[in-house]
Amino acid sequence: MSEDWTTWLVRYRAHLQLEGLAARTIQGRAWLLEKFLAWCRDLGIASPSNVTVDLLQDYRRYRIQFVNARGKRDRPFTVNTHLLALRDFFRVLVGKGAVPRLLLEQLTYVKEPKLLPKDVLKHGEIIRILDRVPGDTPIHLRDRAILEVLYSTAIRREELVQLALPDLDLEGGALRIEHGKGGKGRVVPLGKVAADWLGRYVRSARPALLGRRHDSGIVFLSKRGLPMDGNSVREVLRRWARAAGIEKAVSPHTFRRSCATAMIRNRANPGHVKDILGHDDFRSLAAYVNLEIVDLKDAHRRFHPREQDGDDDPGAPGGPVPVRP
Question: Known catalytic residue: 82?
Fold first, then answer.
């Protein structure tokens, strides 16, 4: 008798743990899969062995047409989040010989519109925000260091609040991210200006904020000397954005997107940007790369070796071969 959905879900969670995924990621995948399993049970599908290609296509259509709590259909990105969890689950099932590979091959993502990143700040707008922060108090020094680090490194809000003193290499210009998204660590470059502000904060402002409290080693502290949380960091950005007269919605993720956008626009290698952001593949960079689509002809003209010959005379050696009528 085929094993039921609950048994396979337990096995799948154990598999993700062995792969080193963060507990939060595993919980999220399981929550998404529970939606699919409940849908299957309602149809009387008791185990993976009863799944067909047609059934998976029906579920794909169901997710596309699903009306959420706001009374609207989910965005393609949200639909694909469900399909990603389902595809990964079936990848494991295929590996265990529980279902044929055809099921996985036929379960495709929906097409997402190629939208440019929203609420991206221009470099001048970032500078306006930074310049509004004076360096006259421990809190102001802390806030300036937070802003500079976020813009320089594009790290996530959760990664910023988890930074510990041993993670800083101010002289070498780098930060070590111990627990990135998916539980993966990485090292990111830290620019000189950001390193200078972070150094000033660590040397003078942080001890003043800590006072006589036990030192947990966490870099960024609240005015009471306790480790900051993500909401506090978000409020820091909103407060200084308002002070700078920026009307756009500003969050830590805005700084992350703005950093990535600025680097792509300045001709950074997308592979390097991907690694700085901590992404596993280039799919998440698609929106940023689209910013450069208007410059493709110019890039081709300047960098393609065939365009460097310098002589457009069809009769010149090495020039284009004349087309005979």
Answer: no
